[in-house]
Amino acid sequence: MLLTLIYSVTSLSTICATESDLSSSCTMKDPEVQFVNDLGFQLLNKMTKSVGNVFISPLGAAFALGMSYSGAASRTAQELEEIWKDSDGKFATEKVYERLGKFFTGLDDNEKQFTLWNGFLLQNGYEVKEDFVNKLKNIYFVEPKIINFINASVADEINEFFTKETNGMFEEIIAENETVSHISKILLLNAAALNETWKVQFPPERTKRDYFYSGRRETTEVRMMSMEAESFKFYEDLEMKYKFLEIPYKDDKMNMVLALPTQYDQPANIQMDSKLFCEIKNKMSHTKLDMIAFPKYRFETQTSLKDAFMDLGIQDAFNPLQANFSNIQDDSDLYVSDIIQKAVVEVNEKGNEESVITKLKIMPVAFRGVKEFIANHPFIFYVEDTNSGVILFSGRVDEPSESIP
């Protein structure tokens, strides 16, 4: 029995800068972009049905599936195709992944705001088909790395390789308390990172301590960022009972869309898809808001996507008796044991050292009659590439103070 592990590692770090934003209206995107977005929406929809912080990279998950698909055959491949079925019933092929791979190399600009990296580790002496290796090189820009999984220090070796390949952006993918099975033969790695600044700054002097009402009906103290009398794209849907806010990053290349329930006790688990997201974006308009406030937050997550993918119909790939990865090796008993995303998420204002302990005073809306976006209870966020419309990262903030002193 051979063990295949797929790790997807993501990191999001946001600090604030200056000014305001204009962005184009939403239209239905190219098929490959819509595939990625719908995959991310489906995963997030399932994962937000329970409480807790959630963070995923739809693009990272797509490439992990794509690398698996390159080696899959028979019904295993069919299930991986079907998850990408479009509205006309057509299945995705490697051409979709190829276009994505070539397109997203353009996102990695001189400032390294967004970085996408893939890795393929192969057991020393373990032969795989040349066609599979060529697909990894041509579609995912991956050069196979030969490694010996039997070595006791294999975790250190993988971490060292991973750190070097990502230019120090990630220090480890295998934690101290984790082990790598000595029977592993293939390890597929995927990493995406965003380090971007807001276009409109949250004044550091306005960051105050206040309360956040978590999805577990608990109250925790957080550092709440805020600004007043700024214009952002905003929309409130009275039927869905959600407020939506779009905050641009500098240079208008990316933006963060936040979805906030209007009621404190309303779960932040909106069931989103590409069509609904586009409709919401088109209903948003530049609105001068009297108050915008949401917490600084930093949390680390390690999320298994296996159950979510199985719920979406990918069954054989995870079944050691049914999986067929014969396009990697003939008569192979390879299977996918899990797809894991590790995430480090941080959103704050520039200059996060502050010692103010007074609380941010927020009056009930009924007494003020103003337009505001006060995220002092769980909310969902989507980080979108403005040009393509692809969702790079998405998640839910349920406990923002996990790692904030």
UniProtKB/TrEMBL annotation:
KW Signal (keyword) present: yes
Gene3D superfamilies: Alpha-1-antitrypsin, domain 1 (2.30.39.10), Antithrombin, subunit I, domain 2 (3.30.497.10)
Assigned GO CC terms: extracellular space
Residues spanning the signal sequence: 1-17
Endoplasmic reticulum found in the keyword field: no
Serpin domain mapped to chain residues: 41-400
Listed name of the protein: Glia-derived nexin
Listed SMART domains: SERPIN
PANTHER family with a match to the protein in the record: GH10112P-RELATED, SERINE PROTEASE INHIBITOR, SERPIN
Family classification: Belongs to the serpin family.
